[in-house]
Amino acid sequence: MPVFISYCRADSAFATRLAEQLVKHKAHVWIDQWELHVGDSLINRIQEAIQGASGLLVILSKTSVESEWCKKELSTGLIRELEEKRVVVLPVLMEDCNIPLFLRDKLYADFRKNFDDGLKAVLESIARATSDSLVRVDSPQWHVDWAVDWGMEDDAFGMYMLAVEQATGNPFSVVTEIRIRGNRTATDRYLGLLEAGLDWVEKGALIELLADAAAEKDIRLRLDDEHAKMVDLVLNDSKSGSRYAVHIRSRRVGQDTGRDVLLNIGGQLHALRAGQRGTYRNLTKHEEEKLRAIQDRFATRPPNPTDYIAV
Asked: How much is the pTM?
């Protein structure tokens, strides 16, 4: 999911330099001078790009804050923030100017004195705004750090999740690994989504499915010694015929307090799902059409009794 760069034409040299530096740091950016071609619908392409972006870098200058076009792009980004309840708009201060009212309470990347300092701030900001594989879930009593990887492994779709939970005041942490492997139908569906640039949709849908299953089955593991405890289950997606083998493994690390720990796997996954929802964005109309076509293809596929997986 790219970061959209909003700027006025007078600042194109600065915007291009910023975009080039972000690409050198392996960031995915969308800037009109690279993406638009003769004959494109300017309004439709830019609107779709903003809706599909993971973040909106707004370059603030004396000229841009007076630009009606830039004001419209900023308004679209702010509306997304309200709808999705997450940071979308990331201000970039190129020079002294009259900062728009709705941006005055935001921290901004300051390029006025030093470009490299501003670039460092932007890279840190977009990492927080765009990461969908690293998540921290906080509560007053504990926090859980999650890492999520997904993709093809040995000709099958798979997902690997790692959680480290630390409770306030406890001299130990709990580490949980979750390995998921899909059947042939799940793999074909993922490859279709990957080709459409929607592989992240599969990750979100699978986390939703797993969180619901863990809550329904009330999966809990009692960690009563230093050894790992495990549980296996199978997830079924009746809408697509996809099946997933799930292996969950948890253990305690750190100081042994002599007390058992009852780990609520369903609760952990529920918290992860809530945290992940904060990184989701709305699909563009074009993406919705592609997703619907993939869903329809698998909804009409007859079930294959030999398409199974072993836990």
From this structure: 0.67
